From TrEMBL:
InterPro entries: Glutathione_peroxidase, GPX_AS, GPX_CS, Thioredoxin-like_sf, Thioredoxin_domain. Keywords: Oxidoreductase, Peroxidase. The keyword DNA repair does not apply. GO terms for molecular function: peroxidase activity. Belongs to the glutathione peroxidase family. This is Glutathione peroxidase.
Length: 264
């Protein structure tokens, strides 16, 4: 792990402690919370190869460090807590206007949950097809829940107002858009003039509870990591995760599965 960070011209971390540490990757400044135990866990989980790092959630694009997937003992407790929740209706999230939304309001609906981004190569096709699917099936019981996420490649950097305007004006999105997924566990960085990292929100030690639940209920080692923007989770009328689709699966390719759940 230390060798990997040194190769990124990062002056970080042979003596890392439980605190925020600043470093540089290429021409981007970032912040990362490094815990000594996390480094040890990372060696165990991903080894020293770059392929292992990509496999376990280190997202590197254009010189950007944007993911951290090590697992500390406390994280196992977080995943265990999420796993004890039986349906998605046990969660409350904040919408794009920062108002609490209990997901129990969607009982009896089929849900398609997507982590979205405004500056991704997948943005245009996904937003267009999501709007198409929503307009076609919203009166039959479909809800699409979009969670803006800046974790992958810094591709959702805007404010909530900017995200809302982008989705609703350019793509005429009418489905619910929520606050950038965040975790109450995530410490706030010190006030500095250094460029800040994206929120660690769908992967890593600060994963939002809703995404802990989605991942832990869709199989895979430690719930499996979200791979990139526009990964999709399909939830049935009983609040159970029934299918998961990679970012490259388009919304229209999921239409047949949506129709099947709506008819059930």
């Amino acid at each position: 792990m230390e060798e990997f960070l040194r190769n990124m011209s990062c002056p970080l971390l042979t003596e890392a402690r439980d605190k925020w540490t600043w470093g540089r990757a290429g021409n981007r400044v970032f912040e990362v919370r490094i815990i000594k135990q996390q480094l040890q866990a990372s060696r165990h989980l991903v080894g020293s190869s770059s392929s292992g790092l990509f496999q376990h959630g280190f997202a590197l694009k254009a010189g950007i460090f944007s993911g951290f997937s090590s697992v500390s003992p406390s994280e196992f407790g977080v995943f265990a807590t999420a796993a004890t929740r039986k349906t998605i209706y046990d969660f409350t999230v904040k919408d794009i206007d920062r108002k609490d939304v209990p997901l129990s309001k969607f009982k009896g609906k089929v849900l398609l949950i997507v982590n979205v981004a405004s500056q991704c190569g997948l943005t245009s096709s996904n937003y267009s097809e999501l709007s198409q699917i929503y307009n076609k099936y919203k009166n039959q019981g479909l809800e699409i829940l979009a969670f803006p996420c800046n974790q992958f490649g810094f591709q959702e950097p805007g404010s909530n107002d900017q995200i809302k305007k982008f989705a609703c004006t350019r793509f005429k999105a009418e489905f619910p858009i929520f606050d950038k997924v965040d975790s109450d566990l995530q410490p706030k960085p010190p006030q500095t003039n250094v460029i800040s990292t994206p929120q660690i929100d769908v992967n890593g030690p600060f994963t939002a509870p809703i995404y802990q639940f989605l991942k832990s209920n869709s199989g895979g080692f430690l719930g499996d990591l979200v791979k990139w923007n526009f990964e999709k989770f399909l939830v049935d009328k009983n609040g159970k995760v029934v299918e998961r689709y990679p970012p490259t699966t388009s919304p229209l390719q999921i239409e047949k599965d949506i129709k099947k759940l709506l008819a059930a």
